[in-house]
């Protein structure tokens, strides 16, 4: 298997979550209300899975190794753009959390902000994924030997193994434990 294999499998789950958020957006528009617990769940998915687990492997392993290669100008530009996309996803999610907190506190104007941030995220993720699946991942393959691909896969597995422990350590700490 190539290193992009598990990343592309993860893309499919992110797309499934995006579809759920799209359905929720339809409901927000028709009913003029939102379930803040659904927003919490979507935020947890985006932060823990899409960002820390998925973008984490991209940035900390794949992009790190690519950075040491003699990348073409186009490939380097695209890698920088992907890193900016990840940062954009993070700041949009932060704004979504803020809007959800305001909504819980009774601020009616927060509903439009929640809808706007969710819409931004579901518009953004599929485009970002397409850049990786169709352009960046196929181009990156040319820079690695089979051994390097296998080493990245091994590092991915270790990265994932640690994630569940980091996630629940953070839960306990957030509760003051
Ligand atoms: Fe990415
Ligand atoms: Fe990705």
What structural keywords apply?
binds fe (ii) ion, globular, mainly alpha, 177 residues, single chain
Describe the structure.
There is one protein chain. By secondary structure, the protein is mainly alpha-helical. The termini are far apart. The model has no long low-confidence stretch (mean pLDDT 97). It binds fe (ii) ion (2 copies). The site of one fe (ii) ion has 6 residues, from helix 1, helix 2 and helix 4.
Map the helices and strands.
Blueprint: H1 4-31, H2 36-67, H3 73-104, H4 110-141, H5 146-174
The protein binds fe (ii) ion (2 copies).
Question: What's the gist of this structure?
Answer:
The chain has 177 residues and is mainly α. It has five helices and no strands.
Determine the fraction of residues in helical runs and give it as a percent range: over 70%
Give the oligomeric state. Answer: single chain
β-strand amount: under 5%
Cofactors, ions and other ligands in the entry? fe (ii) ion
Provide a count of the helices. Answer: 5
